[in-house]
Design goal:
heterodimer, A: 163 residues, mainly alpha, Butyryl-CoA Dehydrogenase, subunit A, domain 3, B: 232 residues, 2 domains, 4-stranded antiparallel β-sheet, 6 strands, elongated
Chain lengths: 163, 232
């Protein structure tokens, strides 16, 4: 086993919760998200020598996930129902704080965005990637990223100010 | 000066170079409407980010952990020790990501890397050093249900928090985490509330079995161990 793989394995562990968070926003489904994370981890380890130590590992894996989602996972996505819908059902009758209700409203608004805008929001607003990194993950020019992001924000603003 | 909304957004996201940033800051002073718009962009960013925060603390499914840990598929499936040994190891590397946040009470990060070891910190360290298994009368955020001496003669203690359980052994003046498992009872996985006094996961009991020398400490032995600062 190469040492690059071992380094990668060590660095990947603490990233997993963020990878899953990104996967959930992309797929809008818990099990699909877990599948996507698992697949991305397997691919990343297979291609460990393609990752340059010192570059952002999160961006690299996000890119693997984004490509796998577009090319493969999306086609066999399990359900139309999003996990935000499941989540709304789960929390009926459970004590909820205002922050929690707000969080669900935001997640629901994000999940109603189209795939392209949702990915931009997930990378920049949730994961905090710089525009340049986010554009590279998505394989698009920075101008395209900012325009998707701006439209996504307008849409969120509109949805959430009505709610 | 005309400033496009996309540029205000980029300003709010900290994306502009210094010169353009300064120009915009000057413009914001004179234009309350622009300043308001920047605040809206910043507020939306903060609101979206906060809405996804709690997803970081949920337990990671076993399939993902296995994918990360699998060296070779053949080895993983043929190796009878596959299970808590590896799972514990990988869970330890996940701990920082999983535990930061609401899993343990405030008071410092529960885990710290020191010289390639995971060392208990914060509320976990305090619980390990001060709580007595034999005197557990109330529900505490971290439970320490068993203390024992391991085969190398160190004091070790099992601990259990919201979603993790593990074993830590005293090494000089630190509690070194030996095993950590993501504790996912069905109730927690489905969003329910966990019972306070639930049993240790079986993977962890195996771990204790593999390490313990003799019987667990009784009340007197435990009290005396605490008085000695957990040194033998």
């Amino acid at each position: 086993m190469t040492s690059a793989t071992d380094v990668l394995r060590r660095e990947l562990g603490p990233l997993l919760p963020r990878l899953r968070r990104f996967a959930r926003t992309l797929t809008r489904h818990r099990e699909d998200a877990d599948d996507l994370v698992q697949l991305a981890v397997e691919r990343a380890l297979l291609r460990a020598d393609h990752w340059q130590i010192g570059t952002r590992l999160d961006s690299w894996i996000f890119r693997i996930m984004q490509n796998a989602w577009i090319d493969e996972v999306r086609a066999r996505s399990r359900y139309q129902q999003t996990f935000v819908d499941e989540e709304l059902g789960e929390h009926v009758g459970v004590s909820t704080t205002e922050a929690h209700i707000n969080a669900i409203a935001v997640r629901k608004a994000v999940s109603s965005l189209g795939d392209e805008q949702r990915a931009a929001v997930a990378l920049v607003l949730v994961e905090g990637l710089p525009y340049k990194e986010a554009a590279e993950v998505l394989g698009i020019p920075i101008g395209t990223l900012t325009s998707r992001l701006a439209r996504a924000r307008e849409s969120l603003q509109a949805t959430l100010s009505v709610a | 000066m005309t400033i496009a909304d996309d540029e205000l957004m980029a300003y709010a996201d900290g994306e502009l170079d210094e010169q353009r940033r300064t120009e915009i800051e000057l413009a914001l002073r004179d234009d309350a409407r622009l300043a308001q718009r920047v605040r809206e962009h910043q507020a939306m960013r903060a609101r979206v980010r906060a809405a996804f925060d709690d997803e970081l603390t949920e337990p990671m499914p076993a399939g993902v952990l296995r994918a990360l840990q699998a060296r070779e598929h053949a080895e993983a499936s043929n190796d009878p020790s596959w299970g808590w040994r590896r799972w514990g190891g990988i869970a330890a590397s996940l701990a920082i990501g999983l535990l930061i946040g609401r899993t343990l009470p405030p008071g410092g990060a529960p885990f710290d890397w020191q010289a390639n070891e995971v060392v208990a910190g914060g509320a976990l360290e305090r619980a390990l050093s001060t709580q007595l298994a034999s005197a557990a009368t109330e529900v505490t955020p971290v439970r320490v249900p068993i203390s024992f001496v391991d085969r190398s003669g160190r004091y070790c203690r099992a601990f259990q928090a919201d979603r993790q359980a593990g074993v830590a052994c005293r090494s000089e003046d630190r509690w070194v985490v030996q095993a950590l498992v993501v504790d996912t009872p069905a109730s927690a996985a489905s969003g329910g509330v966990r019972q306070a006094a639930s049993a240790l996961p079986s993977t962890l009991l195996n771990e204790i079995d593999a390490r313990i020398e003799g019987a667990p400490l009784n009340s007197a032995q435990e009290t005396s161990a605490r008085q000695s600062g957990w040194r033998r």
